[in-house]
Amino acid sequence: MVTNRETPETSKARLLLLDGHSMAFRAFFALPAEKFGTSTGQSTNAVYGFASMLVKLLRDEEPTHVAVAWDLSGPTFRHEEYAEYKDGRSETPPEFPSQVPLTQELMRLIGVPNLSSPGFEADDVIATLARVGGEAGAEVLIASGDRDAFQLVTESCTVLYPGKSLSDLRRMDPAAVEEKYGVTPPRYRDLAALVGEKADNLPGVPGVGPKTAAKWIAKYGSLESLVEHIDEIGGKAGQNLRDHLDDVLRNQRLNLLATDVDLGVGLDDLLLGRTDRAGVDALFDNLEFASSLRERLYAVVNLDGAEAPVPAAEAVEVDVTVAGTGELAAWLAEHASADDVTAAAPAGLFLDGVWGAGTGRVDGLSVAVASGAAVAVDPARLDAADTEALAGFLADPERPVAVHEYKGALLALGAQGWDLGGVVSDTALAAYLVQPGQRRFDLVDLCRKYLGRELEEESSGDQLALDLDGGEAEGASGRWHALAVRAAAVRDLAGVLAAEVDKRGGAHLLSGVELPLVPVLARLERAGIAADRAYLEELQGEFASAARAAVERAHEIVGREFNLGSPKQLQQVLFEDLGLPRTKKIKTGYTTDADALTWLAAQSDNELPGVLLHHRDQTKLRTTVEGLIKTVADDGRIHTTFNQTVAATGRLSSTDPNLQNIPVRTDVGRRIRRAFVVGEGYQELLTADYSQIELRIMAHLSQEQALIDAFNSGYDFHAQMGAQVFGRAVDEVTGEDRSRIKAMSYGLAYGLSAYGLSQQLGISPEEAKKLMEDYFAEFGGVRDYLNAVVEEARKVGYTETILGRRRYLPDLTSDNRQRREMAERMALNAPIQGSAADIIKVAMLQVDAALTESGAASRVLLQVHDELVVEIAPGEREAVENLVRHEMSSAYDLRVPLAVSVGGGRSWHDAAH
């Protein structure tokens, strides 16, 4: 039994009880699993959604006591009476189970107990705690999607029942329950007994719905009284009731929630505890959650348990000056001279503004120096002397500066007509090298984590106002003071993160590759690439027409209209109307995703699955082209944004639009690339990419001599490897043999399993396993290298590229098999893909420097994985091609040569090779 130990605050207590699995499942199905996951493959949608719902509950309800009840996997006392209890439930999605312990860990870290009891369900735990809270005079709130909880509703106990969205929770008090179901809360289990519960496999009375059941209970007062008068119930419903009375009475017994579960806790044990901020930070970092959720969580939990700030971080106070017109030049002269700003003590620079699409805007700017002085200024209020002094300070390459988001600053300042030289640190880039698995590097989070410092919030919408005497208007300084404090934070963070980067062996990677690459990427974004808008609009119309034709054909096949975008209607058409084979069972029926439709197309002669796939393809292509059209700027060019701190492997990514995601191996993808053309004043586009770079890196890292010899043989690489594996002459290797070896080689570089290889090649797992064995028999050094990579990473916790870029993989030692195996595949892939990313970045730096040094007017426009796209000025094709080939092939000295393929043409498509 639960003991009810009194506390001084009992009379004011508000107890919030959460049904763990109910809320987690709701979160899982509300948020798409494919959009919430870590780089190691851990799904996070349930954890994220659960945390979001919890934040809302804590904020809106302000509970003093909280607990989460969880179901256990074993049988309960209800199974002892009814062995089929809950049989027939849909199979739990494989992405869900691993998220439960992560959610429970989050609850523990914020001081919320996780409670369960063998032989009982979460509902019983909640019912017991609700009784304890009620007897102690506490107000009780129950967050659950299980209607059985309605029987617990009283004037002091309310169920918060999910509505249509995660944020929608309906308050089910006694009046709401009676209005909704026509019975009082104590009689809800009587109604449920009559109607049955499909989810629990509790059959009700056939033909009896909630309205009929409620009418009977209202007339007779209770199920017991109804049974006493059962012969008075006429018609078919009455006969069905008599025929299924045993089921009804069993349902009523099973529906009754236990209120005496022995949990070993009392109400005072449920007092909302202290939050382990360091633990939450570590968990959210591992889950790669954005800082916004963390901020919302910290706003509603008890932070008394947070770690004390690091004393050294607060050693220098910030002496803030909000510079009015005519005051900045004097401040810079006094505080930011060469004596004040040195390599050992760079100034901190912070910009408030917006940037993207190759441009930006500066709304506010602040500078902080080592002495503790800091200044904030509104660029719109600078006079000529101030402007000249600031431009000189920013552009001086000998004046060391630390900044947060270097490229954004370059774009915003560049739009203002200012340059930025002397940058020795980007705190976002440095943090990325320290924690490459994290997705965002917000200054507020970094300060809290590395400085133990909370940054004050900027005053929303507050603009600097000056009175007639040039003084600061009352109450207008909050925003500007906050900007100056941020510059000081950047200044302090730069030193701390430099030490962290150095500790991880990444100092050269930061100073020699990542930082120098930022101005190069900024120039790429400013330049953009010319687009043929008319051609894109033509493609858009073509894809839209093809999608409409697919809709019409689908309607013809079925003989009626239906919504091709509705999974529910597709299930009806495919599995009920047409009787096609059932696909994988999911919570809402049977899946109709692309894999399922592809399988159906192979299993059946019916044309519809193929038509549905074609419709989806054409719709996706139309959407892609529409997105490209929207991003064509007034200059007729598309200015994408390159991201350096997103991919854990070190690869660049492209957004708004994503130009790295346009397929090159399909006819349709090549047609889209035809829309990217050479710009006015230039002669053609040149594309240069590395040939088989991942395999060349694998040969280098594994030191497998047979693999190295295959690259140096002069023959087609995959044919040469096929000859060795299959024991034939090179000219006897068939196209199928070559394709198998190619898939094998690339698959190994990406951690492909025998099963994955079988699926890719369309062969049996046994054939795939034999192919892998034959491959490793010939190239044993590759096998030994791959095994050693995983074991070394498991030992030290990370992998490394040829330039020392580390990727940390804590899941290598996880107890969860799915997470561990995913981390092992990442450990295989990271050194190879990461080394390829390192090499193309070095190549970009060398090509850019060589173009500048040669005085060429040609310029690099894009980097797409292993490819550079260059816009060639008239008369420079031969010289630039030679320059690009030389610089790319010499980017790194591998044990095999870096082969570079080059093509040219008036469009990106024509330049393919």
From TrEMBL:
The molecular function terms in GO held by this entry are: 5'-3' exonuclease activity; DNA binding; DNA-directed DNA polymerase activity
Q: Which residues form a coiled coil?
A: none
Function field: In addition to polymerase activity, this DNA polymerase exhibits 5'-3' exonuclease activity.
One GO term of the biological process aspect: DNA-templated DNA replication
Q: Describe the family membership recorded for this protein in Swiss-Prot or TrEMBL.
A: Belongs to the DNA polymerase type-A family.
Q: Which InterPro entries match?
A: 5-3_exonucl_a-hlix_arch_N, 5-3_exonuclease, 5-3_exonuclease_C_sf, DNA-dir_DNA_pol_A_palm_dom, DNA/RNA_pol_sf, DNA_polI_exonuclease, DNA_polI_H3TH, DNA_polymerase_1
Catalysed reaction(s) here are: DNA(n) + a 2'-deoxyribonucleoside 5'-triphosphate = DNA(n+1) + diphosphate
Q: Where is the 5'-3' exonuclease domain?
A: 13-273
What is the name of the protein in this document?
Answer: DNA polymerase I
Tell me where in this chain the DNA-directed DNA polymerase family A palm domain is found: 669-876
Q: Which UniProt keywords apply?
A: DNA damage, DNA repair, DNA replication, DNA-binding, DNA-directed DNA polymerase, Exonuclease, Hydrolase, Nuclease, Nucleotidyltransferase, Transferase
Q: Which source organism?
A: Nocardiopsis flavescens
What's the EC number here?
Answer: 2.7.7.7
> Which gene is the coding source of this polypeptide chain?
polA
